[in-house]
């Protein structure tokens, strides 16, 4: 799909052309955008709003479902400001889960996702999966999350 510059009315019309009841804002850092205008318009049509954010910017209250996936392994000196939400999703790269002891109290669902490295072999990524699976089994309250499209080669 190619990029197309659209005004808000065209975006709403496009969303409504699908049989859906939820729009998920993700990619880059969606909390950098003002989601209140489009969120209000979508809600007028019964559309729920979700976001996947790194948590460094507080999320607009228009959002119904908040998934925080910290990128602390990439940005260790940036603090998490969105400390409550529905999901806390950790991409596991070997970090100590104790880093999230305080943060996880603000979330309903806790997920560990193995780090998938596109340039690595299937075997190496499989080892990453095995480590994350063992970590989930040994860490009460955490569940396994997968980026299935990556494991299937749909990048």
**Tally of helical segments:** 4
Computed over alpha carbons, the radius of gyration is 17 Å
Compressed to H and E, one letter per element, the order equals: HEHEEEEHEH
Number of beta-strand segments: 6
* Content-based structural category: alpha/beta
Q: What does this protein look like?
A:
The protein is an alpha/beta fold and 155 residues long. The chain has one domain (19-151): Aldolase class I (TIM Barrel, Alpha-Beta Barrel), CATH 3.20.20. It has 4 helices and 6 strands. The chain has helices spanning 8-16, 36-43, 122-138, 148-151, and strands at 22-25, 48-53, 65-68, 85-92, 107-114, 142-144. A 6-stranded parallel sheet has the order 1-2-3-4-5-6. The longest helix is centred in the C-terminal third of the chain and has 17 residues, at 122-138. It starts with 7 loop residues before the first helix and ends with a helix. The relative contact order is 0.10. The model has no long low-confidence stretch (mean pLDDT 91).
Short description:
By secondary structure, the chain is of the alpha/beta class.
Helices and strands, with pairings:
Layout: H1 8-16, E1 22-25, H2 36-43, E2 48-53, E3 65-68, E4 85-92, E5 107-114, H3 122-138, E6 142-144, H4 148-151
Parallel strand pairs: 1-2, 2-3, 3-4, 4-5, 5-6
């Amino acid at each position: 799909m190619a990029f197309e510059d659209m005004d808000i009315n065209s975006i709403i019309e496009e969303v409504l052309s699908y049989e859906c009841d939820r729009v998920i804002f993700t990619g880059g850092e969606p909390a950098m955008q003002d989601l209140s205008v489009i969120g209000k318009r979508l809600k007028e049509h019964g559309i729920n709003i979700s976001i996947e954010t790194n948590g460094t910017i507080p999320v607009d209250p228009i959002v119904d479902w908040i998934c925080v996936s910290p990128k602390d392994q990439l940005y260790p000196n940036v603090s998490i400001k969105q400390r409550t939400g529905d999901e806390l999703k950790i991409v596991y790269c070997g970090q100590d889960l104790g880093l999230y002891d305080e943060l996880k109290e603000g979330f309903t669902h806790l997920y560990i996702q193995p780090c998938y490295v596109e340039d690595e072999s299937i075997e190496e990524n499989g080892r990453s999966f095995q480590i994350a699976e063992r970590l989930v089994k040994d860490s009460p309250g955490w569940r396994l999350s997968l980026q299935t499209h990556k494991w299937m080669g749909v990048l």
